[in-house]
């Protein structure tokens, strides 16, 4: 375990917002985590586990201890038709996907360049280009913060949903994910049905080509957080009824929608773009000029600027389409997680 000399969180959140915590610690093992959560010295503090800070918005300072996840390591178990790859939760997700492609482990390439650490992936049930973590996850290990024992859930027990899981619901704030095990099949079938991937030749394409195509798309459309502070996709793609969709098509015939059970999933980026909000700014915070789903720190934004911008976008979308956007980014204020609807005392989701 390391106690950092700084209390400033700017380097530990991808929005690069200049906020502070009471204390910042680095946990390098599960034993470190057990010590931090059982130590009397830290018992009076609220504690926030943090990976890469890539899906986090600090709405002011954090009144407690931020615990940086630095659990690293990978283990591969080869089976007859698949590989079981156990990955420590502090590993960088984009680097892990690249490692899989380089070592001929197939199935994760569609999830290339999603920012964050491996431990965050099951919480959000990350997904892109037709693949979600639930499609690959075998099991998740976690530290129970009540018993301080390591426990494990299989795929079904994780209760994965769209950008959702048991870790955002029943187990929220009660556990810390320590490792994720993926089951990757040896028989690879490329999934090329989404967007620009459809231009690839399914019969001859390689895993490397799919991976590089997705990396190129993301590099072109999405700003690098090291250059322009952002948390990636800020809002979830909303799910609406078929009746609501049919009403919208009358006024907006080009609105993109995808089947989602007996409902429709709408592209949030299109809604924001069609509302004319690309490039819209409030002080130092703005809607990205190329990808409307991304809100950015143009260099001098405060957390208040980002929140005001997000709330403006949310209200504009509701005004135009009667669709309530839900933010994918997780907000922390004081000692707890919060939401735009709470901060602005408006319509609840």
UniProtKB/TrEMBL annotation:
<dbReference type="Pfam" id="PF01565">
    <property type="entry name" value="FAD_binding_4"/>
</dbReference>
<comment type="pathway">
    <text>Cell wall biogenesis; peptidoglycan biosynthesis.</text>
</comment>
<dbReference type="InterPro" id="IPR016169">
    <property type="entry name" value="FAD-bd_PCMH_sub2"/>
</dbReference>
<dbReference type="GO" id="GO:0051301">
    <property type="term" value="P:cell division"/>
</dbReference>
<dbReference type="GO" id="GO:0071949">
    <property type="term" value="F:FAD binding"/>
</dbReference>
<protein>
    <recommendedName>
        <fullName>UDP-N-acetylenolpyruvoylglucosamine reductase</fullName>
        <ecNumber>1.3.1.98</ecNumber>
    </recommendedName>
</protein>
<dbReference type="GO" id="GO:0008762">
    <property type="term" value="F:UDP-N-acetylmuramate dehydrogenase activity"/>
</dbReference>
<keyword id="KW-0963">Cytoplasm</keyword>
<keyword id="KW-0285">Flavoprotein</keyword>
<keyword id="KW-0133">Cell shape</keyword>
<feature type="domain" description="FAD-binding PCMH-type">
    <location>
        <begin position="17"/>
        <end position="187"/>
    </location>
</feature>
<dbReference type="GO" id="GO:0009252">
    <property type="term" value="P:peptidoglycan biosynthetic process"/>
</dbReference>
<dbReference type="GO" id="GO:0005829">
    <property type="term" value="C:cytosol"/>
</dbReference>
<keyword id="KW-0560">Oxidoreductase</keyword>
<feature type="active site" description="Proton donor">
    <location>
        <position position="233"/>
    </location>
</feature>
<keyword id="KW-0961">Cell wall biogenesis/degradation</keyword>
<feature type="active site">
    <location>
        <position position="328"/>
    </location>
</feature>
<dbReference type="Pfam" id="PF02873">
    <property type="entry name" value="MurB_C"/>
</dbReference>
<dbReference type="InterPro" id="IPR011601">
    <property type="entry name" value="MurB_C"/>
</dbReference>
<comment type="similarity">
    <text>Belongs to the MurB family.</text>
</comment>
<dbReference type="InterPro" id="IPR003170">
    <property type="entry name" value="MurB"/>
</dbReference>
<keyword id="KW-0132">Cell division</keyword>
<keyword id="KW-0274">FAD</keyword>
<dbReference type="InterPro" id="IPR036318">
    <property type="entry name" value="FAD-bd_PCMH-like_sf"/>
</dbReference>
<dbReference type="InterPro" id="IPR016167">
    <property type="entry name" value="FAD-bd_PCMH_sub1"/>
</dbReference>
<dbReference type="GO" id="GO:0008360">
    <property type="term" value="P:regulation of cell shape"/>
</dbReference>
<dbReference type="GO" id="GO:0071555">
    <property type="term" value="P:cell wall organization"/>
</dbReference>
<dbReference type="InterPro" id="IPR006094">
    <property type="entry name" value="Oxid_FAD_bind_N"/>
</dbReference>
<keyword id="KW-0131">Cell cycle</keyword>
<dbReference type="InterPro" id="IPR036635">
    <property type="entry name" value="MurB_C_sf"/>
</dbReference>
<keyword id="KW-0573">Peptidoglycan synthesis</keyword>
<keyword id="KW-0521">NADP</keyword>
<dbReference type="InterPro" id="IPR016166">
    <property type="entry name" value="FAD-bd_PCMH"/>
</dbReference>
<comment type="function">
    <text>Cell wall formation.</text>
</comment>
<feature type="active site">
    <location>
        <position position="163"/>
    </location>
</feature>
């Amino acid at each position: 375990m390391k106690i950092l000399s700084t209390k400033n969180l700017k380097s530990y959140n991808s929005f690069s917002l200049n906020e502070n915590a009471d204390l910042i610690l680095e946990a390098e093992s599960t034993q470190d985590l057990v010590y931090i959560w059982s130590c009397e010295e830290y018992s009076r503090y609220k504690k926030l586990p943090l990976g890469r800070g890539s899906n986090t918005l600090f709405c002011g300072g954090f009144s407690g201890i931020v615990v940086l996840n630095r659990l690293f390591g990978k283990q591969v178990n080869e089976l007859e038709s698949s590989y079981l790859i156990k990955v420590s939760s502090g590993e960088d997700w984009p680097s892990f996907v690249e490692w899989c492609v380089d070592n001929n482990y197939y199935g994760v390439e569609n999830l290339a360049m999603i920012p964050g650490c491996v431990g965050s992936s099951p919480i959000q049930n990350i997904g892109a280009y037709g693949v979600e973590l639930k499609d690959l996850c075998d099991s998740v290990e976690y530290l129970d913060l009540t018993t301080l024992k390591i426990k494990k859930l299989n795929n079904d027990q994780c209760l994965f949903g769209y950008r959702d899981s048991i870790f955002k619901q029943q187990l929220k704030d009660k556990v810390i994910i320590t490792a994720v095990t993926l089951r990757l099949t040896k028989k690879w079938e490329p999934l090329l049905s989404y967007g620009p991937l459809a231009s690839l030749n399914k019969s001859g394409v390689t895993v490397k080509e799919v991976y590089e195509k997705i990396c190129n798309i993301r590099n072109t459309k999405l700003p690098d957080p090291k250059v322009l502070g952002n948390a990636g996709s800020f809002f979830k793609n909303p799910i609406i009824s078929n009746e609501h969709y049919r009403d919208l098509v009358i006024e907006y015939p080009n609105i993109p929608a995808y089947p989602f059970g007996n409902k429709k999933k709408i592209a949030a980026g299109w809604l924001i773009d069609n509302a004319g909000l690309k490039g819209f700014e409030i002080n130092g915070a703005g809607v990205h000029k190329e990808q409307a789903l991304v809100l950015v720190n143009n260099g001098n934004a405060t957390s208040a600027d980002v929140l005001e911008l997000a709330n403006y976008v949310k209200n504009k979308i509701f005004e135009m389409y009667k669709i309530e956007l839900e933010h994918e980014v997780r907000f922390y204020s004081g000692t707890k997680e919060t939401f735009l609807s709470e901060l602005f005392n408006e319509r609840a989701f």
